[in-house]
Amino acid sequence: MSTDTARRLWNEAVETLSRDALRALQWQRLQRQMQYNHDRSPVYRAKFEAIGARPEDIRDFDDFARIPVMTKDEHRRVQEESLERHGSPFALMACAAAGEIVRINATSGTTGVPTLYTLTAHDVAIVNEMHARKYWRAGIRPGHVMLQALTLGMFTGGLPLSQGIMHLGACVVPVGIDGGTRRVLDIARITRPHAIVATPSFGQYLIEEAPRLTGRPATELGLRWFFCAGESGGSDPEIRRVLAEGFGARVFDHTGGGHAFHGISCDAPGHDCTGMHFVSEDHCLLELVDPHTRASIPLGDGAVGEMVFTFLDWRGGPFMRYALGDLLQVWTEPCVCGMPGIRFTILGRTDDMLTVKGVNVYPQAIANTIFRLYPRVTGAFRILLDRPGPRVTPPLRIRLEHGGAGPAGLVAIERELTTLFQESLRIRPQFEWLPPGSLPREAGKTRYIEIAAR
Ligand SMILES: [Zn+2]
Known about the structure:
- The chain is of the alpha/beta class and 454 residues long.
- The protein has two domains: 1-276, ANL, N-terminal domain (Rossmann fold, 3-Layer(aba) Sandwich), CATH 3.40.50; 354-451, 2-Layer Sandwich (GMP Synthetase, Chain A, domain 3), CATH 3.30.300.30.
- It has helices spanning 12-15, 19-40, 42-50, 61-64, 72-86, 121-138, 159-168, 181-191, 200-214, 237-247, 363-371, 407-424; strands at 70-71, 101-106, 116-120, 145-148, 171-173, 195-198, 225-228, 250-255, 263-264, 276-278, 284-289, 296-297, 304-311, 322-331, 343-349, 354-356, 359-361, 377-385, 391-392, 397-402, 430-434, 449-451.
């Protein structure tokens, strides 16, 4: 690795590979990975057997796409079976020997029992590199101080992120948010961070609370970068604008925790970046599939599908055709910022999807639409359902906060919002207004949906 801090990319050699060269590298790594997974895990061996093939029979990416996906539910079942039969959660899926595994991460567990994944020192080094690639693109260099204001117990927003920042050579302050907002602000005052990593909603909360708790606006924290993590709100241009103005900082959205799928947005001037640049393609093969039929969807510009990924050159618990339940849109045309690589936008969870009169709607799309009227609305809202989705009997009920308008103003806002919803989402919700500050602010991931009796 060059120590030249003026270079634009952390790993110029890999990050600027042509599409063809990258695909060739992926294929070479995939062949080795298939053999490795097949030989070391009965679960993966069964995946090959399901299509009557051995790794050497898989001749190209299309062949590979015939292997059945692994879902999170299936992963959970395998984990339980592994515990029951072998007394270890990894016996069936982990491919490295127990003595080589140096870290266990878990998913956040918001949708059930956490699923575990395992890393060897080799895998940890890959994760560290991916964090370094992302922050380097945004302009972070050794000497910068980064405040890590996430729920550290979320695993991937915790230690793996701290280690990645340290790997780049920057200084991390893993303050966490579990000690409260005042503590984050106190630590910020005495450590003088250049950058903060936080959820967009915590960022908005800091902008609201800084004047009360410190007597000064959030702009005086001196932050030059705000990195959105842990929530999808950071992909919304309006939310980014609020954060940029509130902190006087450049705002980036990024994703990727303790595994091999990592991306970061760009902030080319005058340009709302569409999606995040995918920085880890040399270690993560991305596919899109139809969420219902699981048929492959080609990765064309603007293609939408459920994300399926396969880790490449991975030793601990390598995921193979793993469907996490995230819906993705992919952009393959070059970005105006000049940074290399394809981009993606996370549209939501396939199981968050609501269907209103045959129209598919994602809570994040609702959040983005409401936020277009900020500051006349605060952006806080909940979707109220009589029973769990996806099917919703119209109208879709949305409880949301206005920004302090009187009754007459509210009528005008509601009219405008109704038009926005009809134009961009093709639904006509029923709005229930609340005064600003009525809905609880969550420091971690905000749950937009509430199941409530009518
Ligand atoms: Zn870009």
